[in-house]
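I have been asked to look over a protein record a colleague put together. What it holds is a sequence and that sequence's fold in token form. Please read both lines and tell me whether the tokens look consistent with the sequence. I do not need a full report, just your reasoning and any doubts. This is what I was given:
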Amino acid sequence: MNSIVADLSSASTAQLVEAAAAIATHLAQRAAPDSGSACMELVEQLATAIDQTEYALAGLIAVVDRTGEPKHSGLPSTQAWLRCHLGMREGRAKERIALARQLPRLERVKAQMATGTLSYGYAATVADAVHRLNDEDCATAEDIMLQAAADGLSAGKVARLGSKIHDLVAERNGEDKPPEDVQRGYQRSWVTVSRSLDGGCYLKGWLNPEDTALLDGTLAPLAKPAGKDDRRDLGERTAAALSAVLAGGHRNSRVTVIANLDTLTGDDTPGWLRDGTPIPAAQVRRIALNAGISPLLLGAGYEPLYLGHAVRIASAGQRRVLETMYDTCAVQGCETPGFLCEVDHVDGWALGNSPTNIDKLALCCGWHNRWKHTHPDQIQITKNDEGRYRYRALPPDGTARSKPGGVPPDHADNPWHDQHAA
């Protein structure tokens, strides 16, 4: 599009969206001015325009959500559509859906967003706070929260005000239990985790009396002030207490961090999580101070932890190593998570060929494990440079063939793949 519609009042919604997209494309290719004051003015103007665009976006999302259009494309929900097709983080997708659903009840929020006098952050905060209130209480809460925003309270403080309003409404109505839409999960306790853009997260939830007692008994002693110079508030101390419990104070909590010995002794080489996420070396050493360390002695060819033929069942340590090496079943195309798989003797224990050594073990889902050992002539086994095995099914004659694109021709009629697909 090389020209912008001049008569905006007569343009269709599609034409306006096209014009906005064209402007955004050209704007993204422009360098920012050198003047800091000029940039401040432009940022404020652009931010207001973005907030108004968010209002228009909420209206469009509301129609998509109401009509159930994503399901026609094979997606389970509007949230899944926003996450998969638009790349939104889960927290942002939930936030936008909540705003789209609540805007019809928030007349003042709608008017202020449309004119650019209310930011998206405040609007989303109000929408999240009122979704469990009836229409009358919603209108009252909207007035109170918008006035708080006008008085200069931050979006975070307005959100806490919204939570307080909800609690007061529940108390007024004589409610001694959480609303119906939160009576879910084990014994009604629930917690939601929303990721933030900086890698952190927001926690929100409700615990029943039994779970609350467990929480208080575990965190309360750790959340006390460390001394007269401890200026943290209760929320900060509680978060620190929770981190202490998760880091090493609970025997059932476990996070696998993989690192070289040099990293633990001062090297800058980062560690990594099982999913490949890098962890800075300094953070690895900090975690190691409070964590149990399982040494993994690697020789040439990645061959650790040998138990030989004396033991058939892999040890807990070996299984942890295998879960680190295998995200999924060793079978090509099988997506069963590694932690749900069985430990498989690559060459078959019953044949006496495969000792319980880490270089002769792999993770294999239960069904494929049994199929592999009843059809040994239909298995092709390879091993990469890092010591990981990969299993591939062969036709009944045991000859590896492939179609263009590397897809094994036997996938359509091989019982291995039929059973897994079922």
In short: The CA atoms of residues 383 and 389 lie 4 Å apart. The mean pLDDT is 75. The chain has 16 helices and nine strands. The chain has four domains: 1-30, 33-184, 214-224+233-290, 316-421.
